């Protein structure tokens, strides 16, 4: 088995969303062994809720964006060979 350091296939992009829109952030990574992902919001680990879901491929979806959702989103990815992070900022507009 060939070991391969983890690497990102898709980088996070800063987004601007209107109030009550849905937003998604992609954190697609590959490596061998398969990488493990953890999402953070303003340095705190994201807890999944009825509005926040993480799909199997590292995609995180936030439904009905509120002003409290604005901030820095960080995807931490690692396997036995490497650790990497990607960050994006979400701005929320509207009333």
From TrEMBL:
GO terms for biological process: axon guidance; dendrite self-avoidance; homophilic cell adhesion via plasma membrane adhesion molecules. Keywords: Immunoglobulin domain, Signal. Pfam families: I-set. CDD domains: Ig (cd00096). Residues 20-91 form the Ig-like domain. InterPro entries: Ig-like_dom, Ig-like_dom_sf, Ig-like_fold, Ig_I-set, Ig_sub, Ig_sub2. SMART domains: IG (SM00409), IGc2 (SM00408). GO terms for cellular component: axon; plasma membrane. GO terms for molecular function: cell-cell adhesion mediator activity. It comes from the Eukaryota. Residues 1-17 form the signal peptide. Coiled coil: none annotated. This is Ig-like domain-containing protein. It comes from Parnassius mnemosyne.
């Amino acid at each position: 088995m060939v070991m391969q350091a983890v690497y990102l296939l898709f980088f996070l992009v800063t987004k601007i969303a209107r109030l009550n829109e849905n937003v998604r952030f992609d954190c697609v990574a590959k490596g061998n062994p398969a990488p493990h992902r953890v999402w953070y919001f303003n340095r705190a680990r994201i807890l999944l809720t009825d509005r926040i879901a993480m799909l199997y491929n590292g995609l995180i979806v936030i439904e009905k964006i509120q002003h409290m959702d604005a901030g820095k989103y960080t995807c931490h990815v690692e396997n036995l060979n490497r650790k990497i992070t990607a960050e994006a900022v979400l701005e929320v507009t509207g009333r």
